[in-house]
Task: structure prediction
Amino acid sequence: MPSLTDRPAAPKPLSRRFADGFQVWNRKLHYYTGLYLLFFLWLFAITGLLLNHSSWNFAQFFPNRKVSNWERAIQPLAPASDLGQAQDLMRQLGIRGEIAWNAARTDPARLDFNAARPGRTYQVQADLKQGRVKVMLTEYNGWGLLRTLHTFVGVSPDDPRNQREWVLTSVWALSMDAVAAGVVFLVLSSLYMWWGLKEKRKLGLAALALGIAVCGLFVSGLRWLYG
Amino acid sequence: MKQLYAFTRDLHLYLGLVICPTVLVFAVSVPFLVHAWIPGAAKQPVSRIAGDLPVPDGVELMKGRDQVNAVRGVLDRVGVRGEVNFIRRIPKEHRLAIPVILPGREVVVDLNTATRSATITNRGDNLWSGLVWLHKMPGQHNANLRGNWVFLRTWKWLADATVYLVLFLSVSGIYLWAVLRAERRIGWTLIGAGAGSFFGLVYALTH
Result:
């Protein structure tokens, strides 16, 4: 006859099992997310540094740009919106990229715009009456390409005329959102893991408080101090 | 080996905790930058007028950082503190338009050098626009002007430190994962999938 000590352990309550499972999966998802986003994180971290240090000599791109010009005849554009005509023109020229408008169109016989993708910009100036187009292509080196990847969103809050219309810009913008969401998850999951380590709570709280104090000074403290 | 693992894990934890608020600032502001939309950004500006200002001689003709340093006295007199974004000269009217930014607040000082007076327009507070501004600062534009306020120079240092620490956290995170043998296969698969998505997207964007 089995003794009392031989009895199988009582099953854990459901809430405990859920908490244990959550802890395990939170930890796993923390490093799974980090590993998947590794290259994206490195790109945005390193290019952030480049953008903040535009004087670094080794990463100069604008003085090293290559500019080429050409001119050619074009087929008449079908009546359409500015965007539709620009897309038609780009098809004729074999150009792909995000359209950026410099100024409002005042002359219907002209169509001027830029088409950009990381590493290259096309400045397109079309004379629809003459049926000719001038194109200036500016190509940047790898550093220029990397910087553009950091900021390539196709929209600007100060310029509502420019809207994303190239599908790849939308995909890239979506991936930026996803990386940001992934980073928020990495932070929250790390906070949960840390809180589970009772012996590290005190020092962790000090570290977190230091981070909140420094960051909080910039986010709202300065407005409070100097407002 | 065990000591190295424990030391790396502690550094990963504590340094991560120190920078996590700043990392959140950068991450949370991304959607606002990507979609060019900031909640509650359109507020009614409030203006006031100040006179008898100590306008330095020849300030209109100065350039760059010298001009910013010269108008600092005027800004102090009207109680406007922050990073001077740029200075736009309107020569015919003897005016200088000076947007001054604190994270989350933009004040435009429209200085008339002939009458030594200024119209000060406050566009109101907005936490989200403050996050966006911090994300973009100091940035690549107006490099000769940028950092004309001590707190922006400090923020530049903090933003740089955040990048270096993120790089450290990613490398130490790889080490901490690599020790877990049971997770290696799935980890490599995820690194491969991430690399595939990343390089695939970059290739499509650039070719």
User: Anything to note?
Assistant: The first helix of chain B runs from residue 2 to 34. Chain B is about 55% helix and 15% strand.
